[in-house]
Amino acid sequence: MDIGSNIRAIRKRKKITIAQICEETGLSQGFLSQVETNKTSPSIATLESIAQALRVPLAYLLLKKEERMQIVRKDERKVTTSGAEKLRVEHLSSTKNMRMMLVELPPGASTGEAPHAHEGEEVHVVIQGRIHAQQGEDWAEFDAGDSFSWNACTPHIVKNIGEELAIVLISVYTEADAADRGL
Question: What is the pTM of this model?
Answer without folding.
Answer: 0.73
